Amino acid sequence: MLLAGDLVTSQQSVPSAMLVRQLADRFFEEPELDAVALLEDGRACGLVTRPKLLLKLLRNFGYELFARRPVLRVANPEPLRVEAAAPLAEVMERALCRPRAVVYDEVLVEDSGRFRGLISVRDLALQQSQALAASLAQREVASARAAELEREGAMRARFLAHVTHELRSPVNAIIGLAELAQRAGERGQVEVVNERLSLLHSSAAGLRGIVGNVLDLSKMDAGKMELVPERFDLSKLVAELGETARVLARKKPVEVEVELPPEPLTLRSDPQKIRQIALNLAGNAVKFTDRGRVVLALARDGEGAALRVSDTGIGIRPEDLERLFVPFRQCEDAQVRRHEGTGLGLAIARNMAELIGGRLTVESSYGRGSTFTLTIPSLPERST
Amino acid sequence: MVPARPTVLVIDDDSTHLYLTRSLLEDEGYRVHCHQGAFGATQCLMEVSPDLVLLDVNMPGLSGENLAQLLKRAQDRAPTRAPAAPRRVPIVLYSSNDEDALRQSVLDHGLTGYVCKGDPPKLRERVRAFLGRAP
């Protein structure tokens, strides 16, 4: 906040005993001089402004009447005085509340009675408009920040609503299935009991998966997920992954192919994290491909490696590519989900890719298939 | 004349929930028709001509509330094949969502009511109440 003391623009003063003639000479000699304070022992006892003085002297016989008098005779003995610690707004208000005759006069600034200087009302107005502009800009920034916070809050709320729904849904299924199994048991229908128990089992397994995902995500969010680097054979890991993908795809006309470099590709990284990322990519590839191929291709990439997972599936619309890695991307419109699944897998995969120092990128052609590429750098020894 | 057993149309994208709801209601003696997913549900409604619709809210592609609007409109547009005036089938939201959110949706979209998933006795009680008669 600006204070009167900071706004002082001139410290022009003359002793109160000075003669009007001498002061008039100064005004003529110094065209930029607008006003002077009259001082007596360091205290201001009046104010003379250029227009007032000249007006007095230019009247008929004015010069003759006043020239040899002390300046106190032509001064305003009660100019507006403000304390140096007064805020700009207060000074402005008091300055503009004065009678019309003196409304444009300079304002005296004092520090416990001692003269500090003069403020011109024109400068005050300028300063105030600048301060206003600054505060407007500040307010704009603040309101933009508030809007952003609100958006973040809304996103969090939506996220929470989705997590809650994703957790509740299988829990509800489990409760219902348990009751149904019990009923069938009471009737002695062993086969029905088994059917219901196996559904119950898969609901519970699904729930475990979701809980694991949510935990992973919150761990990463809090920066609590840790790397466990070790030297290992990435080719072997990818080959195993291919087997898993084949199992996942066994009910579809989808071929799973694994392309490996000629010699084993060993590097230092976190195999668990890589397995989790790659499994998610391979699982998605199988899930969204009804027929054709899913290819897992591993290649050396400088010191590290690059794993490409491509499919001939439904592909991804260009407008959805950006949202792909956002948790619950399908919740952009909270009511409508585009696809099955919780929408957490890729968010986790990308976070984990960054954690191992790599990158996860996607290219897709809608209706033709997608390719996800994970780069895996080899971590330096003893870097945890 | 003994009235036919009431038919309940269950629309849900999750096959486990469909199985569950079907089993619960069939045990009660209702005739149950299941439709998986939102797409084709209006067609199914016209074909099945149920006495009550149980509608999931979170489905891929189309929300339960939006689907409910489509279902209502489809009934209004349908040619009155039956001599009786076209009737509107009660549409009940059946979801794992928050109870407050469900209540709000019911009010916002002019639906018959809601039942929260995961409470079989409540489901039985509400379905009976919405139909206005026992199976």
Please provide a brief summary of the model:
The complex is a heterodimer of chains A (384) and B (135). Helix content of chain A is 46%, strand content 20%. By secondary structure, chain A is α/β, with parallel strands linked by helices.
Rough shape of chain A? elongated
CATH class of chain B: Alpha Beta
What is the CATH third-level topology name of the largest domain in chain A? Answer: Heat Shock Protein 90
Q: Work out the strand percent of chain B.
A: 15-25%
Question: How does this structure look, described?
Answer:
Chain A is α/β, with parallel strands linked by helices and 384 residues long. Chain A contains ten helices and 13 strands. In chain A, strands 8-10-11-13-12 form a five-stranded mixed sheet. In chain A, strands 1-2-3 form a three-stranded mixed sheet. Chain A has a three-stranded mixed sheet with strand order 4-5-6. The longest helix of chain A has 66 residues, at 121-186. With 135 residues, chain B is α/β, with parallel strands linked by helices. Chain B has one domain: 3-Layer(aba) Sandwich (Rossmann fold), CATH 3.40.50.2300. Chain B contains five helices and five strands; from the N terminus they run E-H-E-H-E-H-E-H-E-H. The two termini of chain B are 15 Å apart. Classes of the chains: A alpha/beta (384), B alpha/beta (135). At the A-B interface, helix 5 and helix 6 of A face helix 1 of B.
Write the layout of secondary structure elements.
The complex is a heterodimer of chains A (384) and B (135).
Chain A: E1 13-15, H1 20-29, E2 35-40, E3 43-49, H2 50-58, H3 62-66, E4 81-83, H4 88-96, E5 107-111, E6 114-119, H5 121-186, H6 190-221, E7 230-233, H7 234-248, E8 254-259, E9 266-269, H8 271-287, E10 292-301, E11 304-311, H9 318-321, H10 345-355, E12 359-365, E13 369-376
Parallel strand pairs in A: 1-2, 4-5, 8-10
Antiparallel strand pairs in A: 2-3, 5-6, 7-9, 10-11, 11-13, 12-13
Helix pairs in contact in A: 4-5, 5-6, 6-10, 7-8, 8-10
Chain B: E1 7-12, H1 15-28, E2 31-36, H2 41-48, E3 52-55, H3 64-77, E4 91-95, H4 99-109, E5 113-116, H5 120-131
Parallel strand pairs in B: 1-2, 1-3, 3-4, 4-5
Helix pairs in contact in B: 2-3
